[in-house]
Amino acid sequence: MALWGGRFSQAADVKFKQFNDSLKFDYRLAEQDIIGSIAWSQALQTVDVLTQDEQKYLEAALNELLASVQANPQQVLQSDAEDIHSWVETQLIQRVGDLGKKLHTGRSRNDQVATDLKLWCKKTAQDLIVHLDNLEAKLIELARIHQAVVLPGYTHLQRAQPVTFSHWCLAYLEMLERDHSRLEGCLERLNTCPLGSGALAGTAYAMDRTALAHSLGFARATRNSLDSVSDRDHVVELMSCATLSMVHLSRMAEDLIFYNSGESAFIEMSDLVTSGSSLMPQKKNPDAMELIRGKSGRVFGSLAGMLMTLKALPLAYNKDMQEDKEGLFDALDTWGDCLEMASMALTDLKVNEKRTKEAAQGGYSNATELADYLVAKGIPFREAHHIVGIAVVVAIEKGVPLEELTVAQFKEFSDVIEDDVYPVLTLEATLAARKAQGGVSPEQIEYALSEAEQRLADRDTSGLIIRTARLTDLERVESMVNHWAVKGENLPRDKSDLAQSVGEFAVTECEGQVTGCGSLYIYDTGLAEIRSLGVEPGFERRGQGSALVELLVKRAEKLAIKRVFVLTRMPEFFMKLGFSPTSKSMMPEKVMKDCAMCIRQHACDEVALEFHISSSTLIHKETI
Fold first, then answer.
1. Closest by alpha carbon to 81, among 33, 124, 117, 119?
2. DSSP designation for 314
3. What is the DSSP string of 148-168?
4. Does residue 615 carry a pLDDT above 50?
5. Residue 587 and residue 589: Cα distance in Å, rounded?
6. Region 365-378: what's the mean pLDDT?
7. How distant, in Å, are the alpha carbons of 29, 69, 481, 498, 545 from that of 476?
8. Cβ 231 vs Cβ 197: under 8 Å
């Protein structure tokens, strides 16, 4: 039964139902819809729509449904429900009876789908950041291996000046770095929660929407209900990120296709990412790269389609906006697949160093060096440029490279040319001369590589994900906090306490599970404390503790907090992150609130450390 059937005396036509229903694609939002429903049930309890027992019963049923969906997402498609919201509600009612009908109180499918989609976008964007990091790591690895390999550089598809294969890799690394930055910026902007906005005018129940936002892992609640249900900027922005990144991937694919061709023969792509011809047995086709180049078009089309859908739409929600999901899902799936395939293609890439060097030496690519030589002899550059142009014409007529012309022949072009010209025209000299930052000299390549390696090491590309905590993380957080409480490293905390303060927590994920947690508690005076820091046993030494501390400090900085402190038995760990020892007497709020109730108050072996935000040298970004 449709959720809106009371107004109608006749059933919808079957063809209209097929045209109207969205379950066939929005089933992918099942987890997000259930997670949002759990948070909504808790919000309804705070305004006395649900009793505590009713809320717990609903939450247990929703968690059971969540586990079922995670085990078999395809089960949703066996239903004839209109959309994922109808499916979840129907499944809930089957489990808890009429109590399930109370859950939609004060909520609309408009704010529900907006919330579901933002939750999905956050999770998917985090996965895409990992894919970007992995591809960047492959480019850096390839650049390091082939650091000294010379490669011809091209303009207008004509040989121009020699570069190195490492320099080529680092060029695409810069493009991916910008993709990374754009995706992070998009994550930060979409980190607002629409739930509680109702259909368009807000909910009639006076719940705390900020607490609701925090319970779902959002930084804050949206500010305007009308905008909240109408906003699809994050969809367009993610598609835009995907589109521009696919431009970069397509350009890299085109380069590799050209380098892999028989005409260039600079590289040989792995058998793992190439295919053969059904007719010509000698062929080895770079299909992976051609597909990346081809798939860029469908991503571009998704963005154009979404922009056209939104153009001139009146406020607030309109059914047109149902068209946001299929294009978004396809664009981000395609982007992720292409990032993975590009990483695979670079893994076993073979570079023909002899061939690349021969090509770099051809095409009179050292002509600019000869012009610079003449400039060093006092000839104005424009005149030097003309002289070298004539010399190139003569060398072409003689069928020799510039460096094989004799001094006598050179002097026909300019009397200032002497024997000292030949060292200038070597391939090594040509590369070494480009010493300015960003150039191809060995020193600059080494600098750029080292900087890139450090940049990736600082943000950890091992697959670690760090994000704000969600209600569904509570069981794992409780387990870790109380594990370390038993060992005397943390204060114990029960699940209800953790549920109320879930917005204070950040968690890390390794291998698909939550394996680290920490919280930032803010006192009335503006002092903040890092609490409940812990890592799952067996997952130590992966940078999770450092990542959590750095994120929590950055969070304090955004809140204009000047001092963050911690009480710990591991002061060395925090001191490496910029904390310095301080006196416990400098933290009266802490002493009054917690320490006064501690049984070890007079035999405490914890050390107090503090971090001054104004002198922060910690992380440069926050991963939401």
1. 33
2. P
3. T-EEEEEETTEEEEEEEHHHH
4. no
5. 6
6. 89
7. 23, 19, 9, 11, 16
8. no
Q: How far is 248 from 139, CA to CA, in rounded Å?
A: 13
Q: Can you tell me the distance from the alpha carbon of 25 to that of 23, in angstroms, rounded to the nearest whole number? A: 5
State the Cα–Cα distance between residues 523 and 589, nearest whole angstrom: 7
Nearest CA to 402 out of 389, 392, 393 is that of 392
pLDDT at residue 276 in the model = 72
Q: Please give the C-alpha separations between residue 145 and each of 139, 140, 265, 349, in angstroms, as whole numbers.
A: 10, 9, 19, 11
CA distances from 544 to 131, 486, 506, 511, 548 (A): 19, 21, 11, 13, 6
Angle between helices 442-459 and 165-189 (to 10 degrees): 30
Q: How far apart are CA 347 and CA 352, in angstroms?
A: 15
Residues sharing a CB contact under 8 Å with residue 101, sequence separation 6 or more, in sequence order: 89, 93
Tell me which of 281-285, 437-441, 588-592 is least confident: 588-592
- Tell me what pLDDT residue 622 has: 35
Could you report the per-residue pLDDT of 173-202, keeping only the tens digit for each? 999 999 999 999 999 999 999 999 999 999
Instruction: Tell me the per-residue pLDDT of 92-136, one tens digit each, with 9 for 90 and over.
Output: 999 999 999 999 999 999 999 999 999 999 999 988 998 999 999
How far apart CA 178 and CA 245 sit, in angstroms, is 9
Q: How far apart are CA 232 and CA 419, in angstroms?
A: 68
SS (H, E, C) 368-420: HHHHHHHHHCCCCHHHHHHHHHHHHHHHHHHCCCHHHCCHHHHHCCCCCCCCC
Identity of the amino acid at 364: Y
Strands 580-581 and 607-612, bridge-based pairing: antiparallel
**Cα of 435 vs its chain's centroid, Å:** 33
* Predicted confidence band of residue 445 (pLDDT cuts 50, 70, 90): very high
pLDDT for residue 587 = 63
Structure-token pair, residue 522: 């803010």
| Apex 450 CA angle, 445 and 452, nearest 5 | 95
Number of alpha carbons in the 13 Å side-chain half-sphere of residue 464? 25
C-alpha span between 492 and 483 (Å, rounded):
9
Q: Is the pLDDT of residue 551 over 50?
A: yes
Give the residue numbers annotated as catalytic, written as ranges: 156, 277
Length of the chain: 624
What is the rounded CA–CA span in Å between residue 15 and residue 19?
A: 6
**Rg, the chain, Cα only:** 31
Tens-digit pLDDT profile for residues 453-502: 988 887 765 667 888 898 889 999 999 999 888 877 888 888 888 888 89
Statement: residue 401 has pLDDT above 90: no
Average pLDDT value for the chain: 88
Q: Which residues pair with 510 in a beta bridge?
A: 513
pLDDT of the residue at 271? 84
Looking at residue 178, the DSSP 8-state letter turns out to be H
- Both structure tokens of 295: 């798939």
CA distance 382 to 509: 60
